[in-house]
Amino acid sequence: MSEFLKFPSNFVSDQFVEYIDKSEIQTVVESLAHTISQKYKGQELVLVGLLKGSMIFMSDLARQIKNVKVYIDFMKVEAVGRSKESNGTIVISKDLSSDVLNKNVLIVEEIIDTGRALSFVKERIAQAEPSNIEVITLFDKPYKRAVPVKADYIGKQIEDQFVIGYGLDLDQYGRNMSEIYYLKYPN
Predict the structure, then answer these.
(1) 113 catalytic, yes or no?
(2) Rounded to two decimals, what is the model's pTM?
């Protein structure tokens, strides 16, 4: 059964090409989890997923982290008033519900491109005075940066492609696909 059957019929699915298969994604996630497990062994760690895209990566990552007491929280931020002339204002639509004072925090992103939202989130969490803030991302597009923000842990650097699958979406579709696909004919 084609993964593209998970799209509504009005989507043109043949415009997407498989880019990263699920076994490669699994290998990358396991490697990242092993690194986090070693770094935070015997400690507490608050994973902060940025909704909605990070949910699948964060779920798989959390299950692979060993010998660490893991807490889970989420934030959701959105750019409002975005146009060709402006990048918009970033607003919080779901803030942390956990107290992160003096705790280790790992911000979980599925992909970093411009870095605007991540920079905003990192500054916001810093105001809560955790003992440590780090960033992990499954995919990184460093050449797309608009602000100087870096991930501490990077699963894979990818080309400048519009990608969907494994949490990444096109108009809210495709998040449930096991592989990563790229748009063959970008608009």
Answers:
(1) yes
(2) 0.90
